[in-house]
Amino acid sequence: MSEVGDAKRGWDYAPAVGLMASLFLFGVTKIDSPAPGLDPSWRTGVNLANTAGMRFGHDIIFTFGPLGFLDTAQSLSRPQFMLSLAFSLVATAMLWTAVYVGLARAMHRITAAVISAVLVGVVSGTEIVMPSMLMVISASIMALFFIKGDGTGHLRWTPPVVAATAAVLLQVKFPEGLVLVAVAGLCVLFSPSRTVRTVIESALAFCTTFAVGWSLTGQALGDIPQWMAHSLDIALGYSEAMAIENPPNSYTYPLAILLVIALVTFTMRWTATESRRARLGVFLVVICLLFFSFKQGFTRHDTHDRLFFAVAAALLATLLGAAKRPPAVMSMLAGISLLAVSLVFASAGLTRFNPVVAGQVWKSNLQLLVDHDYRQRLLQGAAVAARSHYVVPANIVSSAQGHPVSVDPWEVTLAWAYDFNWHPVPIFQAYAAYTATLDQINADAIAGAPPDQVVIRGLPQSIDGRNPMWDTPRYLLALACNYDVGPSDNNWMMLRKNDQRCSAFTEGSTTRVEVGTRVVLPDVRDGQILVGRFTPDALSPLRMIGSALWKDLPPLLVRADGVGYRLPRGLADGPLLLRLPESLGWPTPHGGSLDYKELTFSQPGTLKLETVTVER
Fold it and tell me: Max Cα separation, the chain?
């Protein structure tokens, strides 16, 4: 009897061992130093914004909020990456626990612990599925059990816990926070108890957590409405401006449809004996999470689709394991097969299952945490490597020292590497100003910058085939009208703030444009900037629905002198720079030779031409 009791107690350790193994293998990723490039630079920007005490919604507007460093920590600040490590560990523990609690209801605890660990290892630790997304998945799984009718014991606190998590994630990465706000609302709306107390507890948890997080990062409470509005503008503009299809990928659409059908089927089976209200609530949570992950994963349809398959895998594992009675053999086999396929498509490889690699990551991160000199050596090495990559001329560096500096189009790491006083426009990477509103915010910021403001511009470049001289148009016109050219070479141009030197717009011709219509641009006098404003026809109702549910493809394409460029519809009203005068002094490699002769458009609309006179 004693031996049996000892064996049983041994099995009791299975959950603890599974959780600890998951935290060790998958709980943290290597904290890197700043580096050149588009993605490393926005990470640098998010971290610098926090350490510099910038106001989000005013000084900085981006997908990541004042707590964004929790998802994107670099070694710049010890407190930041220490909190980031803790955040990653909590997110990993939350996902493992949420999946385990579901699986342990229908299978042996050691089996549930192993499957939970494998799932966490597959879906976590990539650039696509960040710790914030792990929290979204785990909190949503908690919501499923709560709404289904298990709102007793510890699960009774699910609504306020989900609400508090949503308040944190809004300030980490706005879209993830937004979807969890919806899940928290469903928790309250479909709460089994349906008490006013649940509403009050959830509202207090959300508001208190949000206010504490916002205040601890040094933000002003008065900036919240403006930050919310601009963050929503970025979220809504993302789909149209950033949608791509990167083949080969068409085979993932049928698989995604199959997974959605399977998940809906298993959801209905799982809740078959529950009330209609509970079934509806669970169904809406599943659909909410699937829709969000589909939009996030398939809008930029490249490796981003891992996010959808990660969510599908977590939901499938939960629904299969939590069933009170096992599905029919064929249904179970189909579910397990789809789960295996989801895990394959969600995975970025098996490296994270290597304990040696995990040990090295822990060693590196802990060394960064406790050894100041080690961290400084890494940062100094990263700065040297970045300067070797950028090779900014000495006369530009010396001219910019001591002045507020912005870097275009996106190399924020340059400002850090040369120890400049980084003073960016709010949307600090040009491609992310997806809409006219965001573009105007940047234009107003650069025109109203301090009198000694400096802008260092690299060679014109953009993403996804967009025209760098139209990315973003209002901002670029503000630069041309308010800044003089300083030291430059073939790779870098420095602009210095000066007085406004442009006249008001002078209206020119207005042309109705059909698909493929060739528009010959007029000559203008020396000293004039020619700009265009294109208003595409409104989308059909069917295409608007498709854009809301999926994405807007094909995009608007503009051919300028025979070269095709993608143009976000939100920026089509420009004013698009079509011709720059020599009197501006912009070097040829930096757009000074801009002189388009003709345009054609892939969508019908109206083109309005205008001129601006440079007065000196």
Answer: 100
Q: Which residue has the tokens 């959780």?
A: 19
Distances (CA, A) of 517 to 443, 575, 577: 31, 20, 20
C-alpha–C-alpha distance, residues 126 and 586, integer Å? 41
Assess contact for 30 and 361: CB atoms under 8 A.
yes
| Rounded Cα gap, residues 481 and 502, in angstroms | 5
pLDDT band at residue 389, thresholds of 50, 70 and 90?
very high
Q: 502 has which bridge partners?
A: 614
Contact by Cβ (8 Å): 445, 230? no
Report, in angstroms and rounded to the nearest whole number, the Rg of the chain calculated over CA atoms. Answer: 27
Residues 6 or more apart whose CB falls under 8 angstroms from that of 28 comprise 85, 88, 89, 361, 362, 365
Residue 259 has pLDDT above 60, yes or no: yes
Digit-coded pLDDT (tens) for 41-53: 999 999 999 999 9
In Å, how far are 60, 340, 436, 461, 469 from 472, measured between CA atoms?
Answer: 17, 44, 9, 12, 7
- Laid out side by side, the sheet with 576-579 consists of 506-513, 605-613, 528-536, 576-579
3-state secondary structure of 218: coil
| Mean pLDDT across the chain | 91
Tokens 């626990």 map to which residue? 97
In sequence order, the β-bridge partners of residue 508 are: none
Residue 580: closest CA among 616, 615, 611, 534: 611
